[in-house]
Amino acid sequence: MYQLPPMPPERRTQRSSFSSNRSGRQSHGHGHQRPEHRDTRSGQGAHRPYRGGGGGRRFGGGGRGKSRSTFDVAMYINKNPVAIEAEAPYTPTHTFKDFGLWPEVVRAVEKAGITVPSPIQDQVIKPILEGRDVVGLAQTGTGKTAAFLLPTIHQTLENRERLTLILTPTRELAIQIEQELRKLTPHMKMFATVCVGGTNIRPQIAGLKRKNHFIIGTPGRVQDLMERGHINTRFVTTAILDEADRMLDMGFIHDMKTILKDVPKNAQTLFFSATMSPSIEGLVKDFLNDPLTISVRKKEITNAISQDVVRYEHHHKFDLLATLLGKPEFSRVIVFGAMKHSVEKLGAELVKVGIPADSIHGNKSHGQRQRALTRFKTGQIKVLVATDVAARGIHVDDVSHVINYDLPNTYEDYVHRIGRTGRGDKRGSAITFVPADLT
Ligand code: AMP
Question: Ligand 1: does its nearest atom lie under 6 Å from the Cβ of 168?
Fold first, then answer.
């Protein structure tokens, strides 16, 4: 454990009953706020019910009847991370040329610095090109975006009347997909409109009036645009759901069903998800046609991440964080908070004590979020304070530490959070703040 005063010594295998309520462990006493749980869209987000974490182990108890009452601090500790190199290397069975992709697509891939197909790419590109419906079980960071974009781009070059609709849980992910699409389609006259909430709808409507090969968006805004008559899913030839499990977690099931309902039966449908749950299976059964399931889930990426906890007394919580962030090895840090408001406040307080920081959460405008991300990626700030939803799908290299300033709701959320560090062959560190009275 980090040796910072004033904390009792840690006991490695301590198990304890977790009886404090949610507000009892929020920072800065914002106990009555709701956790951020979905992409806010057109001011309607607040009315959405939270539908739980897809059967995940839920941490914390108070106020939620279905919650587990056990808190196991050992789950946050791994002082002997395994070497990532120990994982058996994957030998791809294809090269990008083998797939028969258009030469300009292969050139764009090479230019993007992608030389060898990743496991998911190696396995799904061919069946997608053959027109199969596919369920790809793959986490972020596996190259899944290019895995579905490359064959779809190829198909669109073959037939420019194709329309691919890509649904993602968050704006950031939608934008990243569009950026990757642009990178992979230079000079190909491939047009896309990003339709995400929290940002002016008018340019999106203008974009939709033009010819599009791709529509990339979050379910709420896409449905909104459908209702206004700007998106007609009857013209969709490929529907892609990225991070489908996350969309379900965020309460998008109804929107997803509404969007998929009128997509023609003979359209190709691709589902990408980090996990398989009964709800995903239900959607797959309803909307996919004889799908091929391909799983490239990594064993336990958490094994490679050094994990530890710090115990805090409530009145010292912020000072502890500031002390940690002042250490030189904390060079690029994502700090997770539970609430939009507390995340905003924490970011501002860090700046006040001289730590270059910014925050991203659902109450920030799209432009503000992008700006914070860019500042973080380019090293202008060293700390990004984020909610789970806002941080989803973010790719930032060399994140030295993830700090769970507020406990995650579920173990799955914990794994998602700490997966922001230790990417690729780099080993990262995760530190979780645990209240001293949680024993
Ligand atoms: P994703 O899983 O789609 O979020 O991809 C994560 C990152 O991996 C992106 O920055 C891609 O540019 C990169 N990437 C995609 N495919 C490959 C590949 N075959 N080899 C190396 N990097 C890749």
Answer: no
